[in-house]
Amino acid sequence: MGRLKSLPPRLSAPASRLTYLPGDRQAFDRDRDQQGWRKWYKTARWQKLRMSVLVRDLFTCQKCGRIEGDTSQLVADHKRPHRGVEALFWDILNLWTLCKPCHDSWKQRQERRGLG
User: Fold this and answer.
1) pLDDT of 40-78, one tens digit each?
2) How far apart are CA 105 and CA 83, in angstroms?
3) In sequence order, which residues have a C-beta less than 8 Å from that of residue 61 and are 6 or more positions away?
4) How is the chain split into domains, by residue range?
5) Strand, coil or helix: what is 34?
6) What are the tens digits of pLDDT across the range 31-42?
7) Distance separating alpha carbons of residues 60 and 74, to the nearest angstrom
8) Are 100 and 73 in contact (CB under 8 A)?
9) Torsion 55-58-62-64 (CA) sign
């Protein structure tokens, strides 16, 4: 009886998880990160506003109701995207608390569809 030879693979290697993004999406992210308003997130004023939103919402995700004591797992999210409009960015009534999973999945899908 002959020896078995190794069979060639029938499936190709899996594609990168990022290949679903259109090429212009990466350019959009790069351009957005160079916008002047991005530096607002690094200010003490933003940190104070963010903490007031988290306290106001009792460290609870306003989408799923998850209570999270670790503030690094919470996002002070703009209900209506500010798109660089300073008044919308700093408006506490335009902010709510979301947990990271809700912000990174549900909210991002909403914004990509133009609904957020």
Assistant:
1) 999 999 999 999 999 999 999 999 999 999 999 999 999
2) 19
3) 67, 68, 74, 97, 98, 99, 102
4) 38-112
5) coil
6) 767 778 889 999
7) 8
8) yes
9) positive
Instruction: Judge whether 68 and 99 are in contact, CB under 8 Å.
Output: yes
Residues in the chain: 116
Burial 63-100 (b: 16+ CB within 10 A, else e): beebeeeeeeebbbbbeebbeeeeebbeeeebbbbbbe
d(CA 74, CA 85): 23
Rounded Cα distance, 11 and 87, in Å: 53
Q: Alpha-carbon distance 47 to 63, whole Å?
A: 22
Q: Which of 4-8, 18-22, 89-93, 95-99 has the lowest mean pLDDT?
A: 18-22
CATH number of 38-112: 3.40.1800
CB atoms closer than 10 angstroms to residue 107: 21
Structure tokens at 93: 């009534």
